[in-house]
């Protein structure tokens, strides 16, 4: 059923349609390239940031020992390698600056097309992610014997990504100041969708089974999917 087009609002990217407001974004080749660069820079930052954090934690751990009362005290036999900490921190800062520069390019493209003289190009972007998950549950003796080392490694990575996504949704739903987007490449890629809550929407399709043998997997899937509803 078709409806007559509503008058354009003052915001050139907003249309009124009944009680709903549908927001549009300019999508063009430079913007797509700029967004891709942001994702690339963020992906580069993840291992660098993880190494910096690992070094700092390792140095801090070595700098203390437990006394006879099981209380942590400064370790007199170890000197913190501050030079190493400064080195990895500087490297992390460099890659964070590259992410900021890439994000600034995206903002600049939006600013350029926000002027009244710009040609309006309506469009959008959809991101589909197959979270896998349930088929990798290690709750049976069979899976442990039939999976190859590569499959077990893939399962561990999937579980890591799912846990990272769960923590992001939990932090997002409780309006925490810090959302751990950098915990995994998956959450880095989805950061734009979660961060821009006004112009982006996120949904989850949960596959479940009525079979009794799949009760645990179904329950876990429903609990996981409920986080998305809480976040929104």
TrEMBL record:
Locations listed in the record: Cytoplasm, Cytoskeleton
The organism's place on the tree of life at top rank: Eukaryota
Record's GO cellular component terms: microtubule
Transmembrane helix found in the keyword field: no
Presence of keyword Transferase: no
Biological process annotations from GO: microtubule depolymerization; microtubule-based movement
UniProt keyword list: ATP-binding, Coiled coil, Cytoplasm, Cytoskeleton, Microtubule, Motor protein, Nucleotide-binding
Coiled-coil stretches: 85-112
Domain Kinesin motor stretches: 1-231
Pfam entry (one): Kinesin
Chief location category: cytoplasm
A GO MF label: microtubule motor activity
Secretion signal, residue range per the UniProt entry: none
SUPFAM superfamilies: P-loop containing nucleoside triphosphate hydrolases
Similarity field: Belongs to the TRAFAC class myosin-kinesin ATPase superfamily. Kinesin family.
Protein name, entry field: Kinesin motor domain-containing protein
Source lineage: Eukaryota, Fungi, Dikarya, Ascomycota, Pezizomycotina
């Amino acid at each position: 059923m078709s409806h007559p087009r509503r008058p354009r609002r003052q915001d050139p990217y907003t249309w009124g349609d009944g009680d709903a407001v549908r927001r549009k974004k300019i999508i063009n080749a430079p913007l797509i390239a700029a967004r891709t660069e942001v994702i690339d820079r963020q992906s580069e930052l993840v291992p660098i940031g993880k190494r910096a954090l690992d070094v700092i934690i390792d140095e801090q751990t070595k700098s203390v020992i437990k006394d006879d009362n099981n209380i942590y005290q400064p370790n007199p036999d170890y000197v913190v390698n501050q030079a190493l900490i400064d080195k990895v921190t500087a490297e992390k800062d460099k890659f964070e600056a590259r992410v900021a520069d890439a994000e600034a390019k995206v903002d600049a493209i939006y600013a350029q097309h926000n002027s009244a003289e710009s040609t309006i190009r309506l469009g959008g972007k959809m991101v589909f992610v197959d979270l896998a998950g349930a088929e990798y549950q290690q709750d049976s003796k069979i899976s442990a014997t039939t999976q190859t080392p590569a499959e077990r490694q893939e399962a561990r990575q999937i579980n890591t990504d799912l846990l990272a996504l769960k923590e992001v949704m939990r932090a997002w739903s409780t309006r925490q100041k810090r959302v751990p987007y950098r915990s995994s490449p998956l959450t880095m890629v989805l950061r734009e969708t979660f961060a821009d809550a006004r112009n982006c929407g996120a949904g989850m399709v949960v596959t479940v089974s009525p079979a009794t043998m799949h009760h645990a997997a179904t329950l876990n899937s429903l609990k996981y999917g409920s986080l998305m509803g809480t976040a929104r």
